[in-house]
């Protein structure tokens, strides 16, 4: 997999406990995780790596190694394919709460 940027240092001035509480609220709003106990959501939140990408960046590449699951917490992600003749074809948009990479 190829990535353009890794901003894992985008930490707010909050304490780690406060940050986890905010993350748990987001995780509870993801349909795939809805209904999981708070303790499990906390564990998932602790193991997550947070990244942000500038507009028009590539997050995943077709056929690339993807041994992870992406949860979109904010913004919008466009899923595209590039045809054999080089045309960019928009397939769909991912919005907060959506996920990708589950088929890898």
Can I get a quick summary?
With 104 residues, the chain is α+β, with helices and mostly antiparallel strands. 22% of the residues lie in helices and 16% in strands.
Measured on Cα atoms, how large is the radius of gyration?
15 Å
Work out the oligomeric state of the chains in this entry. Answer: single chain
Number of strands: 4
Q: Please summarize the sheet with the most strands.
A: 2 strands, antiparallel
Number of helices: 2
- Structural class of the helices, strands and pairings? alpha+beta
Structure description:
It is a single chain. The protein starts with 15 loop residues before the first helix and ends with a strand. The protein is of the alpha+beta class and 104 residues long. Helices cover 22% and strands 16% of the residues. The chain contains 2 helices and 4 strands. The protein is elongated. The strands form 2 sheets. It has a two-stranded antiparallel sheet. A two-stranded antiparallel sheet has the order 2-3.
Question: Main traits of this protein?
Answer:
104 residues, alpha+beta, two-stranded antiparallel ribbon, two-stranded antiparallel sheet, 22% helix, elongated, disordered N terminus
Give the topology, please.
Elements: H1 16-28, H2 38-47, E1 70-71, E2 77-82, E3 88-94, E4 99-100
Antiparallel strand pairs: 1-4, 2-3
Helix pairs in contact: 1-2
């Amino acid at each position: 997999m190829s990535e353009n940027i890794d901003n894992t240092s985008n930490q707010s001035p909050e304490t780690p406990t406060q940050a986890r509480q905010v993350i748990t609220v987001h995780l509870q709003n993801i349909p795939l995780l809805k209904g999981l106990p708070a303790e499990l959501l906390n564990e998932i939140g602790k193991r997550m790596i947070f990244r942000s990408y500038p507009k028009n960046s590539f997050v995943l590449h077709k056929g690339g190694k993807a041994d992870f699951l992406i949860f979109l917490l904010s913004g919008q992600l466009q899923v595209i394919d590039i045809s054999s003749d080089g045309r960019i074809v928009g397939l769909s948009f991912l919005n907060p709460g959506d996920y990708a990479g589950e088929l890898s």
